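Protocol step 4 of 5: obtain the predicted structure for the target chain.
Materials: sequence only (see below). No template structures provided, no constraints applied. The aim of this step is simply to have a reference model before the mutagenesis design in step 5. Sequence pasted as it appears in the construct record:
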Amino acid sequence: MENFKKYAYENRRFIVIGSVIFVLLVYIVRLALLQLVDSNYKASADNNAFLRKVLYPARGVIYDRNGQLLVYNQPAYDVMLIMREIQAFDTLDFCRTLGITKEVFDKRIADIKNKKLNPGYSSYVPQVFMNQLSSYEYGALQEKLYKFPGFYIQNRTIREYTYPNAALLLGNIGEVNRRDIKEDNYYNQGDYAGRAGVERSYEKWLRGKKGIEVLLRDARGRIKGRFEDGRHDEVPISGKNLTLAIDINLQILAEKLLKNKVGSIVMIEPATGEVLCLASSPGYDPNLLVGRKRGKNYAMLEEDPTKPLFDRSIMAMYPPGSTFKPTQGLIFLQEGVITPDKLYTCARGYPYHGGKPACHGHGSPLALIPAIATSCNSYFCWGLHDMLDSRRRYPTVQEALDKWKDYMVAQGYGYQLGIDLPGEKRGYIPNSKVYDKVYKSARWNSSTIISIAIGQGEVLATPLQICNLAATIANRGYYIVPHVVRKIENAQLDSIYTHRKYTGIDQEHYRVIAQGMRMAVVGGTCRGLNMRDVEVCGKTGTAENPHGKDHSACMAFAPYNEPKVAIAVYVENAGFGARMAVPLARVMLERYFHGAQANSEADVESLSNTVVKATNNNNRVPR
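Step 4 output (structure tokens):
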């Protein structure tokens, strides 16, 4: 019995000691969790003593190539709140001051507290209650701010646009989402970032670096001034300014000419790859997407059946039509399928295929240069036939077509060119696997796919790619990736926008094609581009549209020697290339070479007032 008591006593002592140790361990672990893991605890401790106020940098401004200011900043103000610091106040007075209803106030508070809508919410951390107050709204609230404990004003800037033009090119800024915050720890809830255009693609240059101001609180949470005289503050660093390659005067003219039409005008400086003009129609005024009305206006634009948010210059994929023929002549010359003097017959259509594709009346037989000048369909069909169907050159039709595609890719088709804008489409150039799959075990040859020789069938291209082809011919065999930004303040452009990309086709063949395009202007299908004092080289295109009237296209460069500019015009449902695209290109070239004194104002008014009616969601444009 005595031993049992002794054993029980010793065990009870161990139990007591063990319990004390367990309690201590629990306390230590909880303390560690509070200090190291629980962000709310840390935020609470910090916010009892300090208010860390973010200082937002001025976003970089944007100029055109001639120094014209396009995008700048205006002051704006966000209403911020720290939920735990809110005390009883007159909410109706607060709502009247901000011009909102009590229902809006209640919903906003509920949304802030909803962790599904606002992940990472903490009652200790500043939240955005209302953004982008005007100067008038700011003044009205500032006078009464002392009545609304827990609320304060955060200085911001919003974008302003000098011109109601180039909206798709410039882009816009909007509030960041969860994905933005997750992918880049620079952003917090309520921050803004570029959502489209240059604003998006150069976001990291434009946004700058945030600063911080550490303010000291007293025991009641009132701000007593800067902590240690601002020793721990960080000054914000403004974003980099951008100079665009765009000439805003050319951009304004292009958008005016495209009024009442659906299409695009692109201009490139061949020697540099700089994009002088990138117009898409329909468009919109960029000022619509500024301020608190941004969401409402964006929804309106998104629902517009004319798709003003769709940048046709880099996103629309069209059949290039006869603007494609120079690429075929270059491939046939490089592969030895033809020489410049090779003659092919035309009988108002491709004879080998029963007169299809059809062609218009002109001399026959003819060589390559007059074939380009007159835009003969048959000539390029014959060339594709001789390349794909002759087993002397390639063992199979598949190898021949894949070689053809490789040349097309080298000339800038079938893949994104890499312009410094988001959303660029790649167009489409088929390879042999496409036709093997379509025709399965059936044998296919040039006759099966003959329409690709003249830029129809499965072939699709963007207006940017068509203009880039004109620039490549102007350079006699190379291009520099098109880009809309010319200069970044105190920084270098990406090297892809300074290096030449050669197509692998001999320069002498480009000289032949350039001669054909010059003849097209002097006495062929591009006569409307003929100018007295500038040697223009051009190529029309009329793209068949199974859903309505044909599309009107044109590409050109000038002058013939030492070219300064390349242009592509594409107008949906406007008929022959010479009927609409050529006159538009002519006015643009006159303005480029002769400035505002160009004798084309009457033409500008006439063309801008010409209405081209779209038909039935034509030509797979959104693809």
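Step 4 remarks: Residues 36-45, 617-623 have pLDDT under 50 and may be disordered. The two ends are 94 Å apart (CA to CA).
Proceed to step 5.
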